[in-house]
Amino acid sequence: MFWKFDLHTSSHLEALLDKEDVTLAELMDEEDVLQECKAQNRRLLQFLSQDQCMQELVRLITTEPPTGVEEVKRFKYSNIACELLTCDVGDINDKLGNEEPLLESLYAFLEQPSPLNPLLASFFSKTIGNLITRKTEQVLSFLRRKEGFLSLVLKHIDTSAMMDVLLRLISCVEPPPLRLETLTWLNEEKLAQRLIELIHPERDEERQSNASQTLCDIIRLSRDQANQLQELSQPDPLLAVLESQESVEQLLQNMFSREGTDSCIVNGIQVLLTLLEIRRNRYSRLVASLLYTSSSSHAVIAQELCRLNTMDLLLELFFKYTWNNFLHLQVELCVAAILRPCAHEMRLQPGLGSQEKSHLDLFQQCHLVPRILDAWEENDKIQSAGGMRRGYMGHLTRIANTVVHNLEKGPVHAQIGSLIAELPEDCRGRWETFVDQTLSETNRKNTIDLIGTGHLRPSSDDDMESPFPKELTLQQTFSDYQIQQMTANFVDQFGFNDEDEPKTQIVLSFHLFYAEDEFNDRFVCLQANTAVFEACSKERIQPFDDEEEEDIWEEKEMSFATQTKSRKRSEPQHFFFEEFI
């Protein structure tokens, strides 16, 4: 039986288009109007491209619909109008992008008083964004003639859709020469400075947050697109301003003004962290980012942190907030970075004068060894009384192993050994007993056997210390490579090669950021060695044999003997597993 299809049956939409008095509302009520528009139905596009229809579509996405109906139905036509205007059909794009009266009607939405309707703002942002992409030259020419355009966008920055408008201007303009021209225009309008000024205690939190997010997105987008502008031998003017010392100083002044607020500090730190990013650097906190940003300036940064008493405060916070594992990780990274200077720095600064000073402060002013011993003994007392193990013990174990590793074979082991020798006799004795017995036993317990895991590095006597120093070495090497991806201008600005106080003041934000971060809820952040998880996964997922597939139709001699294949079992392998509970 064959089914008969009438492929020439006219839809109801075609019937409506045959009417002389058909209205736009009638067509928008049809379910397939958008589909037909995308399919470039010629009769439909001719109708929609009429001046009165285009004006009505723009009006629907920029004007509040009448009240008195359900919210879903109230914005029905506005939503459909936005979809029709942005369905990426050439006829509609050309009409909207080339007709000055239509652009004026669309632009009038920005001239409305605040606050904007967020839904209508999203319709406007989507429509103008599509035009920036498809009718770039025409729309940019129109916007540049509007002297108050940027002021109006920033006026409504508390509406998140306005962020998208700015980002479209930065990321969706092609070709590169036109993009550079657009970036130069935005820079002449002082976009970066005006966004920084919005991160101010006197501004509302929503405005500060959106301004901060916009700056972060601009920095990341500009760095991602830097290679294209390099073809023109021209730097990104917007990024250059954001990475300048003047911009960072202005941001810091706003953050630490007398009437400074938590919101202003947090949003400002987000911008600073983005500036310090090295291709999505894993260290998401400020002080750790500073220490891992530039190996050539590592010693000077470490010295400045000690001079400002930052490391002492960080260690105090480490033990105070028992369950804040996010804080514990950052403090651990900071201690490890100070104890273990990278090879590149050793070549640049063979004398290591400032590095010795930071080691001296860490052991003498910060009392690192007594703090480790006291915290460990206190935890043992709590556990022996039936209490819960402290949440920082896993990180404390790694810090202790880092000290031991650098004392035995690190690049500055002689300096660290001298500092350990200068400890009071009773403290030195406690430390030696702790390393030989307590820490050694803890490391032994943290070492587990995996049967049949040939994927992991076997342990030896040289590998029994925490893997963190070696892991840190790999991270530092990778960081040295990644630093090449960061704009050289910013690295130079924040090389910390002098005693410029505004630069060193940046570390104060870390103090305030964590001082207010009280964690009352007790939780333990479970962390496991990545290698353990991968090894266990590979152990449970056995690969198929690579042998040729057997032909089931091949004639074979019958045999009642059953043969078994012997499977070799790999020898037990040892590796480190850091325990956190």
From TrEMBL:
Lineage of the organism: Eukaryota, Metazoa, Chordata, Craniata, Vertebrata
Species assigned in the record: Takifugu rubripes (Japanese pufferfish)
Family matches, as Pfam families: SAPS
Domain of life, per lineage: Eukaryota
A molecular-function term among this protein's GO annotations: protein phosphatase regulator activity
Coiled-coil region list: none
Listed PANTHER family: SERINE_THREONINE-PROTEIN PHOSPHATASE 6 REGULATORY SUBUNIT 2 (PTHR12634:SF15), SIT4 YEAST -ASSOCIATING PROTEIN-RELATED (PTHR12634)
GO CC entries: cytosol; nucleus
Similarity comment text for this entry: Belongs to the SAPS family.
Name of the protein: Protein phosphatase 6 regulatory subunit 2
